[in-house]
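S1.2 Input.
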Amino acid sequence: MVKISLVAETFIDLFAGAGGLSWGLQQSGMECLLASDYWGDALKTYSHNMPDHPTIECDVRKLTMPKLAQLLPEKPDWVVGGPPCQGYSTVGKRNREDPRNVLFLQFRRIVKGLRPKGFMIENVLGLKDMSYEQEVAESFKDLGYRVRFMVLTSAEHGVPQLRRRVVFVGHRDRGLFQGPPITHDDETYVSVADAIFDLPELSAGEAATEYTKPPSTPYQKLMHLPGDVLQGHSVSNHPEHLVKAISYIPDGGNRTAIPPKLQPRAGFHNSYSRLASWRPAVAITQNLGKPSGTRCIHPTQDRGLTTREGARLQSFPDRFQFLGGVTSQRLQVGNAVPPLLAQAVGEALQDGNRWF
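S1.3 Output.
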């Protein structure tokens, strides 16, 4: 790969959450000068896993230029981040007037004040569906950036998940960003089995803190800890009737396999569905531990996913530990940028051949 510079490019991460974006960019060779978020639990997770990254728990609206001048040792090459996405989400009713939809303007304010060489915004696909892309791009072109937006599918970059994300990249002098090269296709995607089947088997209400078998796939080896301590691998205590109901669902199947007398009364058409072991996951959400969630029942075990399995499917290695209560941990996992996707983007940002 042809690098633009031998010196590590620097960045600040706004709306950093638990650190999926920062972790991936760090793995690509970039250096974090500051990470900011208003969510205490997520920032504790971030600092626990990346203690050398300066962090500040702060409302982005209070990150003034004088405050940033105090916090930053130098001007960053990049400002990156993923503004809260609930207002953009394709789940539920989207509202262009939702106040969460204009938080990118706070991001823009900081880019305008710091004048970095480049910026990157990551968000859910719903943003593109609402035709925000031109509005966002034009707002940064006014600041002197050439901007390109693209939709990236996580599975095409080694993540065992089909989640799609919108990425905006702008730079002052490098031209237009081509995005990271696709490394996986339908024949070579990392599957759910490839990702999590080395983890200890569990029933409802059980937990494990040690591995019971060695990794057997390249992805499992990438995720596996060198030691034997396993964090976040615990199952919610599902009711007995729910366990019996989902026991009828085959690998990759759905609630139609449940006998009528055991059918749950509530839920959507894609509730109570198993992940397909031979395919990537669909999209990991904060409801990953609930069988009533969107396709988040283990392919072969009669239960919802554990936090660790969700993290694996997001491409967080096992050495990355999540802090806070179980509900908070699952929310951190579901809201995160898949680190392997972030790493692929980071490598491409620094590759002179990925600009035109």
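S1.4 Remarks. Residues 289 and 304 are 4 Å apart (CA to CA).
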